[in-house]
Amino acid sequence: MSGWTAAEMPSLEGETVVVTGANSGLGFEGAETFAQKGASVVMACRSLERGREAAAEIRKSVDEAELDVRECDLADLENIAAFADGVDDAYDGVDVLCNNAGVMAIPRKETTAGFEMQLGVNHLGHFALTGHLLPELRESEGESRVVTQSSGLHEQGEMDFDDLQSERDYDKWDAYGQSKLANLLFAYELERRLDEHGIDDLLSVTCHPGYADTELQFRGPRESGSSLRMLGMQVANAVLAQSAEQGALPMLYAATADTVIGGEYVGPGGLMDMRGAPEFQQSSDASRDEDDADRLWELSEELTGITYDFAAL
């Protein structure tokens, strides 16, 4: 895949792609590129207003873009269920689900269900969404994919099952690392369970963007009111980051390339895996811990109330 760019993506005419966090950053770039390739793109956004503004921006460059902006608040399990019901009513199947949205290094707060926000949005919200949409993914013609966005910072993450919601001790970066490690544990376990049930036309793939210049880096400093951190992020993004368009390439490759198999981890292959064209990479040993993955899966089902019924697919 040396030097791979979005120009090498196949036509996606007739396919339906769901992208969470599609109104900005990597999600916006992904939604725009999927639309350029002819897909019908469901833009799953927490804010309908920002989602519609993003759709209008995409239509400036993609005249006939098929865009469907729908509210999907990953911090609200009832809202996730309503979103999934709407997709089920409107579409005959989903070909690609990009679990892309996320929050990073924010002051501690909780979702409507009482989950620590970073774990709740980055992992548990996407766990619930994927479970709801699993039948739709199976109904698509041909192969379908779930692509889960992680981060290189998963390598600093540790699953603290004794304090999973960081109620006793909260560090914003530790919580972020844990949530990104959880993304990988989930994605790999999903692929294992699909394999165990003989489901070979639905792939679970994961990716990371390297260091991309997006709005994600600024939410934490903004919410904590730190002008110094805001300035630091601006400087770091200007000096070190690649563009959001480039950062979206691993997700686009994982979603569409015919060389991808289930259980792959795709990231940029340049300097310190922070920039460059996508390549297959190895995630941390912790992300491959099958006991932790199974434990997290069971806890995720218990916490979200979502049970994956593979036998019924």
Describe this structure in words.
The chain is an alpha/beta fold and 313 residues long. The protein has a single domain, classed as Rossmann fold (3-Layer(aba) Sandwich), CATH 3.40.50. It is 44% helix and 13% strand. The protein contains ten helices and eight strands. An eight-stranded mixed sheet has the order 3-2-1-4-5-6-7-8, with helices on both faces. Helix 1 links the parallel strand 1 and strand 2 (40-45). It is globular.
Lay out the secondary structure:
Elements: E1 16-20, H1 25-36, E2 40-45, H2 48-61, E3 66-71, H3 77-90, E4 96-99, H4 117-139, E5 144-149, H5 172-196, E6 202-207, H6 216-224, H7 227-240, H8 244-247, H9 249-256, E7 265-268, E8 278-280, H10 290-304
Parallel strand pairs: 1-2, 1-4, 2-3, 4-5, 5-6, 6-7
Antiparallel strand pairs: 7-8
Helix pairs in contact: 3-4, 4-5, 4-10, 5-10, 6-7
Summary?
The protein is of the alpha/beta class. The chain has one domain: NAD(P)-binding Rossmann-like Domain (Rossmann fold, 3-Layer(aba) Sandwich), CATH 3.40.50. Helix 4 crosses helix 10.
Keywords:
10 helices; 313 residues; 8-stranded mixed sheet; Rossmann fold; 8 strands; alpha/beta
Biggest beta sheet summary: 8 strands, mixed
Give Rg in angstroms: 18 Å
Q: Are there runs of 5+ residues with pLDDT below 50, and where?
A: 229-239
What portion of the residues fall into strands of 2 or more residues? 5-15%
Quickly count the domains.
1
State the name of the first-level CATH class: Alpha Beta
* Cα distance spanning the termini: 33 Å
* Average of pLDDT: 92
Strand order of the largest sheet: 3-2-1-4-5-6-7-8
